[in-house]
Amino acid sequence: MPLARRLGLPILLLGLLAGGAAAGEAEGMLAYQRGEFEAALRELQPAAAAGSVRAQVTVGFMYATGKGVAQDAAEAMRWLGLAAAKGDAEAQHNLGYLYDAGLGVARNPAEAVKWYRLAAEQGRADARYNLGAILKDGSEGVPQDRVEAAKWFRLAAEQGDAYAQLALGLLHLSGSGVAQDFTEALKWVRLAAEQGYAAAQFNLGSMYFEGHGVARDETEAVRLFELAAGQGYAPAQFNVGISYHSGRGVAPDDVEAAKWFKLAADQGYAAAQANLAMLYDHGQGVPQDDQQAVFWYSLAANQGDVYGQYGLGAMYRNGYGVGQDNVMAYMWTSLAAQYGLPIAVKDLDTLTARMSPAEIEQARGLAIAWVQRSRGKAP
User: Which of 278, 324, 335 is nearest to 302 (CA)?
Assistant: First the structure.
């Protein structure tokens, strides 16, 4: 699972004027704290140009995030680079993020690792997490190293970083880079969930649902899914929908299922789109509507969801919500069948029996072209 990276927030060191900050810089920091970003930039930019590391970091962050000025990643790179070269950990972390995300510069994971590591060695939890996130899966110029990733996740997790706590818990769950240990996994995932981190709430719910490291409890699982779903986390919204549709952990209720599927589907979550389509297809929890079914099946199918592909093929095969078309039916059904979906394999045999060789060849060509497009290749 790819892990999210984070840009660090500026730490405002207001201090006393007698402590070395010029009047303009101090006023700029106060203006930033009040949310008066344009005024803050006017005061801080001269201080940054004069060599103040704190001003350079804050000005760089403002350009990176578009606070008080038009977002300009190249300017952010310039100011953060000046501060990072002087050893400022916050600037090093944020400079690493810009290389990681490819903002203002060509994406360069190896350069990101360099700056994250410098900040991580100074104790920044967010840098330790981001460094671990790259090492976990590896990237261009960065070999995968889950043992080292686990080391950095643990250091950040012990500092209370929720992202790192979840990441470390998931490594223990899978036994990647650390010994598989469901008890340790539960400990770290729970700590992250207790901080309100939606992805952790979702994963803790999954552990209760599957009985990993804890007694299976589908009611508690749904409660946790709903906490994450309420924060807009699409996988959790989908799982709440599945729970209501199947009646696992809650009383069955397809109206509720459709509501949660729609919320996740609107975010582009393919499995939710396919399941919402099935509800429209069969009139469960929503009025039966073939055109809505085709719409949602199509969105899911074009993201590679096997049930979306099968459902769309069935709509073409039967002429429901779309003109009957054996070629399109064969195309979508064959894509689902290649994943071994038994009903798709069976329906493909039925379609083959009623189609001409030319039609089958055309359908296969369309399927191949779709696969090539989905992989970013010209047909």
Answer: 335
Helix (H, G, I), strand (E, B) or coil at 142: strand
Answer whether residue 265 is part of any domain.
no
Q: Hey, which residues does 153 pair with through a beta bridge?
A: none
Contact in structure between 114 and 96 (CB atoms under 8 Å): yes
25 assigned to some structural domain? yes
**Which amino acid, residue 228?**
A
Query: Which tokens belong to 68?
Result: 């008080």
What does the pLDDT look like over 219-255, one tens digit per residue?
Answer: 999 999 999 999 999 999 999 999 999 999 999 999 9
Which of these, 224, 292, 231, lies nearest to 264 by C-alpha position? 231
- Provide the pLDDT confidence category of residue 4 given band limits of 50, 70 and 90: low
| Cα-based distances in Å from 244 to 241, 259, 260 | 5, 10, 9
Domain limit, last residue, from 144, 168, 194: 144
Provide the whole-model pTM: 0.87
Q: Is residue 153 part of a domain?
A: no
Q: What's the CA gap between 167 and 147, in Å, rounded?
A: 13
